[in-house]
Amino acid sequence: MTEFFLGRFSMTSSNATRYSLIQSARSQSPTAWEQLVHIYTPLIQAWGRRLGCQSDEVDDLVQDVFQSVASSINSFRGDGVTGSFRGWLWRITYRKW
Q1: Please, are residues 13 and 1 in contact by the beta-carbon 8 Å criterion?
Q2: Cβ atoms of 10 and 1 closer than 8 Å
Q3: How much is the pTM?
Q4: What's the distance, CA 1 to chain centroid?
Q5: Which helix (H) or strand (E) holds 4?
């Protein structure tokens, strides 16, 4: 099992985003979107703070990131060759900041 660190979050390869969750989000499943928001909001907030976001700006950043994810999730390949969902999410977060 591979372990890597994102800020203060320790992630393992066993908890990588399930492809089925991404597929469900692509199909506009409300439950899938709720799960994505629940799973990734704390991580996006932490990234935002690390980038220098003020506390009153963090929620706006999270909203902007999820709006971009919603409009471009079909472009995420999820093939394991081009990168992970978390990596894709980080790039969106960084660009939004």
Answers
A1: yes
A2: no
A3: 0.79
A4: 21
A5: strand 3-6
